[in-house]
Amino acid sequence: MSALALVVFLASLTACKQGANAPVAEKPAPQQQPVLPSAPGSTPEMSSTLSQAAGVAWTVPAGWEAGPARQMRIATYRIHAIAGDPEDAECAVYFFGAGQGGTVEANLDRWAHQFTSPDGQSLAQPAKKEKRVIAGLKVSTLTVSGAYLGAGGMMPQEQVKKPNFRMRAAIVEAPEGLVFFKLTGPLNTVAAAETDFNSLLEGVHRQ
What DSSP letter does each residue of 69-137 carry, written as one string? Predict the structure, then answer.
């Protein structure tokens, strides 16, 4: 072997040894994506807060307690009395079927006449009636305060007069018939619940 060939051979051998000792680049480990906790309140509302009848649905306000089933009622919601009032208020919902339950005006007039002044005479301030359209549905409302006579039975001798009471009522002309909402109870408790009652009405919609 010539001197030149020997030099080339030794140089190649040294390069091979250096290459064998060179670090091997590692592939970067895949990054794990952080698991973010769900935001509080991000879960959907329980379906039990949604009620329906006659082709319409509405959301029950938070804090209104659903009562047991009662004859002729779709639902009964209890609203706890505020301090100083003698009893809870309730919101009753009725649906009697298509074409049943009387006319809108007849019901509003009957409910208004369930209230008198404390001395049994006509109210100093007549009942307030309003009509509006919500989600394409005709809605008639009634607001009246005074001594309530509708707390007893059907016969006059069974009626119990309750002073300082108030009623917020509404009749929704639903696709399958009239749906009646009656919020009745002590004056201040009903007044405090009116924002929730209005929200319930604003949320009524076709199914």
Answer: --TTEEEEEEEPPPTT-SS-EEEEEE---TT-S--HHHHHHHHHTTEE-TTSS--SSPPEEEEEEETTE
CATH code for position 102: 3.40.1000.10
- The pLDDT value recorded for residue 44 is 33
Global pTM reads 0.73
- Owning domain of residue 64: 48-206
Q: 124 pLDDT exceeds 80? A: no
Residue 33 has pLDDT above 80, yes or no: no
CA atoms within 13 A on the CB side of 155: 2
For residue 167, the cross-strand partners are 144, 184
Residue 200: count other Cβ atoms within 10 Å of its Cβ.
Answer: 22
pLDDT of residue 139: 98
Compare 96 and 159 and report the one with higher pLDDT: 96
Indicate whether 62 belongs to any domain: yes
In a domain, 30, yes or no: no
Query: Domain total for the chain?
Result: 1
Distance CA 160, CA 147 (A): 10
